[in-house]
Amino acid sequence: MGNETQIRQTAKRILTTIKSGSYRPHEFTPWGFLERLNAYLTRQNICAAPFYKNLIQSPLPIAKADTPPKFNYLDVPSTTVSWPPASSLKIVLGSRGKSCSDVCMNLGTSEHTLLLPSNISAYSIRNKTQHPQIQNGYLYYRSIHATPPQNLSYLYTFRCSPEHFPSVNHRLNLQHFGVSCPNITYTTSPMAPYWDDATSSCVFQVNHEWFDCTASGTLNGSDVFSRFCPCRDALPNQISLCSN
Q: What is the pTM (predicted TM-score) of this model?
């Protein structure tokens, strides 16, 4: 280490042999910033009601022994989510013990169940959310100039959308998507909302601060639960924007 000349020569040799190109994600470019800004300013509709508004009739009573009936206002959403848009929501029943992050990322496989209203087919949903190569307009231009590298294929997948958890955490919304809840319970587990096979119950989240995309594993040593997951797609290289 005392030979400064040798150190300099070694450093130069290392620098000349390293050939690595820099990569800046599209989201962090001026174009990516303006793309998000344009979407937020022109696409949000803060006056529109969520699609499930007309489904909500009244809150669910919680019956307790020796006490008057109380009402659980999780059935009445306290906030209306205007972004991401309600049309981007895909409710998925994951396989046992899987996190919603994994469930959404692998939505294209048969391992998980995409929940649909009775008048919509899974084929039409999946084909509308596959980032088609539109041969005209902005999306086609974007597909050429803002395509992520091949080794970043995860940028094309679905992702868990925590903003949509309040919509999933609702018995009438699940009923709209064909899920019947013979029994209903509430918990503060980060896995909720989920389906419990052992008791044939829909288990909903009591505290909205406990919503968690990454929670997985077992509950009390059992893996008989399957999470109800809010998934959405995204433009390649622009995670915060939906493909439509």
A: 0.65
